[in-house]
Amino acid sequence: MCGIVGIIGKREVTPLLIEGLKRLEYRGYDSAGVATLVNGHIKRRRAQGRIANLEAKLQERPLTGTVGIAHTRWATHGVPNEVNAHPHATDRVAIIHNGIIENFQEIKSELIAAGHTFESQTDSEVVAHLVTHYLNQQMRPKEAVAAALKRLHGAFALALMFAGEHDLLIGARRGPPLAVGYGDGEMYLGSDALALAALTRKICYLEDGDYVVVNGRSAEIYDANDRAVARKVVETAASGALIGKGQFPHFMLKEIYEQPAVIGDTLASYLNPATFAINLPALPFDLAKVPRFTITACGTAYYAGFVAKYWLEQVARVPVELDVASELRYRNAPLPAGGVMIVVSQSGETADTLAALRYGKEQKQKVLAVVNVPESSIAREADAVLPTRAGPEIGVASTKAFTTQLTVLAALALATARARGTIDKAREAKLSHAIAEVPARAAEVLAHDKQLKLIAHVVAHARDVLYLGRGPSYPIALEGALKLKEISYIHAEGYAAGEMKHGPIALIDEQVPIIVVAPSDELFDKTASNTQETVARGGKVIFLSDKAGIEKLGDIALTSVELPAVDPFVAPILYAIPVQLLAYHTAVIKGTDVDKPRNLAKSVTVE
Ligand code: G6P
Questions:
Q1: What is the phi/psi pair of residue 36, to 5°?
Q2: 604 CA from centroid of ligand 1 (Å)
Q3: In angstroms, rounded to a whole number, what is the distance separating the alpha carbons of residues 164 and 41?
Q4: Which of 34, 154, 254, 360 has the smallest count of CB within 10 Å of its CB?
Q5: How does residue 596 score in pLDDT terms, banded at 50, 70 and 90?
Q6: Would strands 187-190 and 3-8 be described as parallel, antiparallel, or unpaired?
Q7: How many Å apart are CA 384 and CA 282, to the nearest integer?
Q8: CA-to-CA distance for 534 and 513, rounded, in angstroms?
Q9: Which amino acids are annotated catalytic?
Q10: At what angle do helices 425-436 and 438-446 cross, to 10 degrees?
């Protein structure tokens, strides 16, 4: 969370900084700010809320200068107002920060005792004062930053600019990512390659613990022990064009509609179009011998992992443990020798997922990452990567990343089943054909958009909504509820249909819509009975099923959406789409900010 950009330019940098911030707004949008050097003095403009508010301020009071830093904030310490907005500054240094300084109280008390005055409630401001404290002791900027870094506990990416130093920026990384960009007589710092994509494709990622001293032509990188180190400069694939919404009113809707295409792109890496055989890249372990998979992730990616647990257990007959990364990282769970940890992440930067990955490595697991951003920390630290090809996902609520994660995980389940001899050739061929057809079937599902938009009017008036499913449809129910909560702010719960009678059935009355995720599969009749139980109590059922399912149960539903009849193996990928659309239209009816829901951020780099 929080986005960072810094530039030492040959030209006016404020417009470039703002353009960079716009690409980073998905990381947080509580406030935004920029600082430049004007005749050697630090000047700032900051605004609560969106970058547009900052732009309005800059219109009134422009900021000149060829060196600057800028920040978009997701609040951790201190409410999202202008005083707490970054950059934080003294008359000697301005800083921007992503992460948490855990021992800020202690340092702040010391500095207050030494005569420093603080203006904000943030943990970040302490960095500006601590560096100033060392500068006041006649240290050079680099030494002052190195000394300050040694005092800081926690996770952070930082960029610092110094009064009187037009040819200097310093960046530091412990935890959240920080990239150095190489331009033509210009140099950049950014939270990720996307932030810098309009400026350069030559990127160097700092390693954990590194700090970097940048001038207009070059960068010197030091590790945590102050030793000069060389880090690879790579060409990134991030597109220079600001990603647009096309004809769609929101990124989320555009991304929902991209699913047939990006599932197809993803499949192209794993499916031989001539033979329909699933092929994975070479892996540093033998799928046939894995004693257990441990799957971990956060948010929507976790639900993709949840579906994969069913697939790997049912089709490949391999034991799977599953947990959210924020629990797994601290659970001290014993993981078996020779085991494989699967981490799933769109951004590849989620702090808890990265920490769980590191825990897995400590426990001698081979780590396999299903990741959308190939240059991300998770992709770089994993032993092997199975990329999703969703392209940049801008809507904070994940959609196309989820279905492409499912696509990759389905391919993994099939490859594992083949390696372990748990399916015969005929079944393998049937399932890989079913996967190959997903893009076409996904396009058919999208044809129900209008109907789902109408149904959203029922959901939009509800205070509580229940989502029910069994087997691999259970995680889809959870994902449906999460989507609705995230963007419409309506309370929703996903429940295993069979578990409903142990609690949530008490919630049911005529006011509660119940979304039943029920493809025709071997558990259909069980889910049908649970659906009857809700109807008997006045529940309004919105039934997501196929022709056969609707023939059996459609009568009792308030309304049914007929999805394509597919092999139940691939149903979770397709049934994800109507729950996305339902959440989307409900949020639009409620008038929320669909792409940037309150309090959320797309890339969660704090724990
Ligand atoms: C945030 C986002 C979710 C996402 C989760 C995990 O909560 O809002 O959409 O599923 O982080 O992110 P990751 O990048 O690891 O998939």
A1: -135, 170
A2: 7
A3: 6
A4: 154
A5: confident
A6: antiparallel
A7: 9
A8: 10
A9: 2, 602
A10: 40
CA of 391 to the centre of ligand 1 (A): 15
In this prediction, residue 585 has a pLDDT band, given cuts at 50, 70 and 90, of very high
Task: Name the token pair of 535.
Answer: 């109807």
Exposure of 235 by Cβ count < 10 A (0-12 exposed, 13-18 middle, 19+ buried)?
exposed
Q: Which of 2, 595, 604, 607 to mutate to test the pocket of ligand 1 (most atoms within 8 A of CB)?
A: 604
pLDDT of res. 242: 57
Rg, the chain, Cα only:
25
- Integer distance in angstroms from the first to the last C-alpha of the chain? 10
The pLDDT value recorded for residue 79 is: 87
Q: Please list the alpha-helical segments (H only) found in 235-362.
A: 251-257, 259-268, 299-316, 325-331, 351-362
pTM value surpassing 0.85: no
The Cα 237–Cα 115 span in angstroms is 48
What's the 300 CA to ligand 1 centre distance in angstroms? 6
pLDDT in tens, 385-427: 999 999 889 888 999 999 999 999 999 999 999 999 999 999 9
3-state secondary structure of 382: coil
Q: From the alpha carbon of 396, which atom of ligand 1 is closest?
A: 8
pLDDT given for residue 158 in this prediction = 97
Q: How far is the CA of 558 from the centre of ligand 1 (A)?
A: 33
Lateral strand order in the sheet of 384-387: 320-324, 293-297, 340-345, 366-371, 384-387
Q: Is the pLDDT of residue 238 over 70?
A: no
* Dist. CA 480–CA 580, nearest whole Å: 7
Contact 134, 146 (CB under 8 A): no
| Identity of the residue numbered 42 | I
> In sequence order, what E strands does 167-206 have?
169-174, 179-182, 187-190, 202-205
Number of CB atoms found within 10 A of residue 142's CB: 16
Nearest CA to ligand 1 atom 15: 345
Q: Is cis: bond before 281, omega within 30 of 0?
A: no
pLDDT at 510: 86
Would you say how long the chain is, in residues?
607
Residue 410 CA, distance from chain mean position: 21
Q: Is the CB of 350 under 6 A from ligand 1?
A: yes
Of residues 119, 126, 134, the one with CA closest to residue 95: 126
Strand stretches in 74-174, DSSP E: 88-89, 93-101, 154-162, 169-174
pLDDT, position 244: 73
Q: How far apart are CA 254 and CA 603, in angstroms?
A: 19
